[in-house]
Amino acid sequence: MANGEHLKLIKMGTDVWNRERHKDPTLTPDLNWASLSKANLKGANLSKANLRGAFLKGAVLSKADLTDANLMGTNLNEADLSGAILVGANLTRANLIGTKLESANLANAILIEADLSNANLKGVDLRNTKNLTLKQLSNVETLADAKMDSDLLEQIKASHPHLLTESTFEDEGASS
Fold first, then answer.
1. According to a count of CB atoms within 10 Å of the terminal CB, is the N or C end of the chain lower?
2. Which residues have a Cβ under 8 Å from the Cβ of 68 and sit 6 or more positions away?
3. CATH code of residue 64
4. CB 79, CB 60: distance < 8 Å
């Protein structure tokens, strides 16, 4: 269960949360199994947070700092993580279906069995990720402008080159 005080603070908003983190840099946020569906946590400092099993479906975490966060089994379905920093984050078995990760930094992140189906990975940094497979990437919306290790890039070019271009879904939406 999440730490009650931490849950109360995060629900007060990003400004309150970040002020508390600044006051006490040793604070390790414990928000495991927290229900934060559709929460607006834009720009939140959640570095080293324990968010294991948290429910963040539809949450706004754009430009949030999730460096070294534990996101094992977290539901981030349709969340907005655009521009978020997830360097070294553990996303083992995380649900990232339909998640917007545009321009996010996932360098050195652990992605064992993370579900990236229909995720927008435009401009994402995937360098040195751990346990990221071609199978996981085969169902993403786009990998246009993504940074990744050369061996993975070559595999994608050979088997799924369409992923390296702008999404056809976005192109269709732009013409409406």
1. C
2. 47, 48, 87, 88, 89
3. 2.160.20.80
4. yes
pLDDT for position 166: 72
Domains: count for the chain? 1
Provide the total of helices (H) and of strands (E) in the chain, helices listed first.
5, 0
pLDDT (0 to 100) of residue 1: 86
Structure tokens at 148: 């990744």
Report the C-alpha gap between 9 and 96 in whole angstroms: 25
**Three-state SS at 114:** coil
Query: Which residues have a Cβ under 8 Å from the Cβ of 85 and sit 6 or more positions away?
Result: 47, 64, 65, 66, 67, 104, 105
Q: How far is CA 168 from the centre of its chain?
A: 22
Segments forming the whole domain that contains residue 29:
1-176
* Phi, psi torsion values for 24, nearest 5 degrees: -130, 85
Tell me the torsion sign for CA atoms 26, 94, 80, 32: negative
DSSP 17-55: HHHHHHH-TT---B-TT-B-TT-B-TT-B-TT-B-TT-B
Please report the pLDDT score of residue 172 as a whole number: 41
